[in-house]
């Protein structure tokens, strides 16, 4: 017993002294060339253990194991990592002199930040990652001045509307996204964790290089690559809850009946002392409810996100592999507004030689959406939650002769039979019944990616040729089973659907499959050179070819005898007859092409004065034979006053730049073959549906922009105005 006590004491002492030996406190001072730096972030790499320096630049951090790496970060300074080998560690940080020389992708090529003359904003991806939303577009809300982000409907998977500098056309105002050099109008397939840089081109001068598709602005996205070193694993998980906000306050049953009674008495032909139908119902009916339809419809939504990636690099190969899952059960009751997305990404690039690089970026995405009519359209669950009278209950009484287990929901007001229900109340639908009986599944499988090769033609790598082949391949499958429900409202016994509910009468299935394939092939020649430290050139010459084809097939069938899930397929519907609809099938296809040539050039002198000019020529199959080609030009310049000799002594101003630009951008987003005459044939008679117009041409947007960029206190505070 005595030996056991001694053993335990020795064990406790060993643990305590071991903790002291292997978990030390490290302290020190962080300075720059001018003295101590306050509020520098100090953290142990790979952990959440961190602190900040005080006003004298001093810090102290506990529980640091010997050999751990401390990371020192401060705005406007180069991040520094130091290994903790003792109890004291003093660090000197250097100013980030590259801040204004950072390369920003602005269209086919990168430009030094200080040479940019257009209205261009690069988004802080570190800050963006804290937004915890699944859609990259939604995460841009509040990140960029002049960019407005709004949900189309708020339903999971229904997409986000982004507007750059407002509505600029009567046609489509959707921004153009360029992901790793490949154009697209939708980035809902992207995972926020995979994005390295995101740049918004806001004015026509910045976007003119994209010509006929840039009138609504351009968003440039590059995805992550592996960094040199050992393989790094990153895991990102979050769970969110979602609530409906700012709902209109609706009348309760008593208030509703008061207002309806007042309106009835204010109507012509109704005597002031007469009893209204609403006063009568209040007096004699025992089945009046007091339903808050919004409260019944909405619930708490929940979302889950899981992303994992592995990345690394050798001397010649860089790689990143990532995968993830996002799922959300929306704010509408039951489980009929879910959205799920699974994504996989593989980015690999390799230096074949000192001058030759090849690579590929591939994204695979599968998304599934439960579609609800949530935008006010028919049948519109939100719309009916607002207009449904509160005096009606959600469910029928089980003793009601019209009650059924399959369809327990109320429908027509105080329904007794096809010719017996109240017509004094709004002719609405039960929103909870809409949700329950909706079975509309939307599935998308998408492959998005590119392969590229880049070769430096000159030994100093100033002249590079790059070829990029991209593909955006999308397969869709939509399946909507419209189940019959509601109250029968046709009193005619001879009516073939006499006993069927009034909604989706008869039942039916619509099923559609489609594919959308777009190939983009671009080739560029880029020359970047600095001459005698005074003159800088960035010249670009390129061509691009885009070919897109969309096709689809679909079928529909009605009168299903068995509506259970295993029978909701086209084979099990009714065969049709002279008095009922026959099964239908159809298919269609459309295509368009775009051929482009473009050039741009930027000249800089002594890092003070910069001028840029671009031109693009687009030929689109969507326009008439007399107007196939469109030409889009831009010119811009900037003056960096803070680099002038007379500003050298004004040390508190870090950057002061004036910008001016003018540019043209186009819009080709109109129906294919709209310039041709469209005819239809019926019973041997040919009718002209639309007259053709061989002069149908581009919509062109012209913008003039003046701007100023101003930053002070070593770039800690920045201001931009346009």
Plain-language structure description:
The chain has 722 residues and is mostly beta strands. Strand 31 (678-682) and strand 32 (685-690) form a beta hairpin. Helix 5 (253-265) packs antiparallel against helix 6 (277-284) and helix 8 packs antiparallel against helix 9 (431-437).
Helix content: 10-25%
Average predicted local confidence, pLDDT:
88
Number of beta-strand segments? 34
| N- to C-terminal distance | 83 Å
Oligomerization status of the protein chains: single chain
β-strand percent reads: over 45%
How many domains make up the 3D coordinates?
A: 2
Which helices and strands occur, and which strands form pairs?
Blueprint (H helix, E strand, L loop, with lengths): L1 H21 L1 E9 L2 E2 L4 E4 L5 E3 L5 E7 L4 E5 L6 E4 L7 E2 L10 E5 L1 E4 L7 E3 L2 H4 L7 H4 L7 E5 L8 E5 L11 E4 L2 E3 L10 E7 L2 H4 L10 E6 L5 E14 L10 H13 L11 H8 L8 H5 L3 E13 L3 E13 L8 E14 L4 E15 L10 H7 L43 H7 E19 L6 E20 L25 E24 L3 E24 L25 E22 L3 E12 L8 E12 L12 E15 L10 E5 L2 E6 L8 E14 L4 E5 L1
Q: What's this, in brief?
A:
This protein has 722 residues and is mainly beta. Helices cover 10% and strands 45% of the residues. It has two domains: 2-92, Immunoglobulin-like (Sandwich); 98-252 and 290-388 and 428-553 and 592-663, no CATH class.
């Amino acid at each position: 017993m005595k030996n056991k006590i001694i053993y335990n004491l020795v064990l406790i002492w060993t643990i305590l002294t071991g903790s002291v030996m292997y978990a030390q406190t490290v302290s020190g001072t962080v300075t720059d060339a001018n003295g101590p730096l306050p509020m520098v972030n100090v953290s142990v790499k790979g952990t959440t253990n961190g602190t900040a320096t005080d006003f004298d630049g001093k810090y102290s951090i506990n529980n640091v194991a010997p050999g751990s790496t401390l990371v020192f970060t401060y705005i406007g300074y180069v991040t520094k990592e130091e290994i903790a080998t003792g109890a004291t560690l003093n660090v000197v940080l250097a100013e980030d002199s590259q801040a204004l020389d950072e390369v920003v992708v602005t269209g086919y090529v990168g430009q030094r930040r200080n040479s940019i003359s257009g209205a261009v904003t690069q988004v802080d991806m570190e800050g963006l990652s804290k937004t915890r939303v699944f859609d990259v577009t939604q995460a841009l809300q509040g990140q960029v001045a002049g960019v407005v982000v709004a949900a189309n409907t708020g339903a999971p998977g229904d997409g986000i509307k982004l507007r750059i500098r407002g509505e600029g056309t009567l046609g489509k105002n959707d921004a153009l996204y360029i992901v790793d050099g490949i154009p697209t109008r939708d980035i809902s397939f992207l995972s926020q964790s995979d994005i390295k840089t995101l740049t918004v081109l806001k004015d026509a001068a910045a976007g003119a290089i994209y010509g006929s598709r840039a009138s609504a602005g351009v968003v440039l996205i590059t995805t992550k690559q592996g960094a040199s070193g050992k393989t790094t694993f990153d895991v990102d998980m979050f769970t969110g809850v979602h609530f409906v906000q700012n709902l209109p306050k609706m009348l309760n049953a008593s208030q509703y009946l008061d207002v309806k009674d007042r309106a009835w008495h204010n109507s012509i032909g109704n005597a002031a002392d007469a009893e209204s139908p609403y006063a009568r119902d209040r007096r004699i009916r025992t089945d009046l409810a007091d339903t808050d339809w919004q409260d019944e419809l909405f619930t708490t939504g929940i979302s889950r996100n899981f992303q994992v990636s592995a990345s690394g690099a050798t001397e010649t190969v860089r790689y990143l592999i990532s995968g993830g899952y996002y799922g959300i059960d929306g704010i509408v009751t039951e489980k009929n507004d879910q959205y799920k997305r699974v994504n996989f990404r593989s980015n690999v690039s390799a230096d074949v030689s000192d001058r030759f690089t090849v690579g590929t970026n591939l994204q695979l995405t599968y998304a599934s959406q439960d579609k609800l009519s949530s935008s006010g359209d028919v049948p519109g669950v939100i719309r009916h939650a607002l207009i449904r009278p509160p005096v009606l209950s959600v469910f029928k009484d089980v003793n009601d002769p019209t009650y059924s287990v399959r369809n327990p929901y109320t429908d027509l007001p105080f329904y007794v039979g096809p010719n017996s229900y109240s017509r004094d109340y709004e002719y609405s639908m039960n929103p909870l019944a809409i949700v329950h009986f909706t079975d509309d599944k939307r599935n998308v499988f998408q492959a998005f990616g590119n392969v590229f090769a880049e070769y430096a033609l000159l030994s100093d790598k100033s002249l590079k040729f790059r070829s990029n082949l991209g593909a955006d391949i999308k397969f869709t499958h939509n399946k909507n089973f419209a189940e019959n429900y509601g109250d029968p409202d046709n009193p005619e016994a001879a009516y073939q659907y006499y006993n069927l509910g009034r909604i989706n009468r008869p039942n039916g299935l619509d099923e559609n499959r489609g594919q959308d394939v777009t190939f983009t092939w671009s080739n560029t020649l880029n020359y970047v050179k600095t001459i005698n430290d005074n003159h800088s050139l960035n010249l670009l010459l390129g061509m691009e070819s885009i070919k897109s084809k969309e096709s689809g097939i679909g079928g529909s069938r009605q009168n299903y005898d068995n509506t259970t899930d295993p029978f909701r397929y086209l084979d099990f519907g009714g065969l049709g007859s002279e008095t009922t609809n026959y099964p239908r099938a159809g298919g269609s296809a459309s295509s368009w092409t775009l051929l482009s040539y473009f050039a741009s050039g930027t000249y800089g002198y002594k890092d003070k004065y910069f001028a840029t000019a671009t031109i693009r020529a687009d030929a689109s199959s969507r326009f008439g034979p007399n107007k196939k080609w469109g030409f889009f030009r831009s010119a811009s310049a900037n003056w960096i006053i803070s680099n002038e000799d007379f500003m050298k002594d004004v040390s508190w101003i870090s950057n002061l730049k004036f910008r001016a630009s003018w540019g043209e951008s186009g819009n080709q987003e109109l129906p294919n073959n709209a310039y041709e005459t469209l005819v239809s044939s019926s019973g041997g008679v040919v009718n002209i549906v639309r007259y053709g117009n061989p002069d149908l041409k581009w919509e062109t947007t012209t913008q003039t922009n003046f701007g100023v960029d101003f930053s002070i206190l070593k770039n800690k505070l920045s201001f931009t105005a346009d």
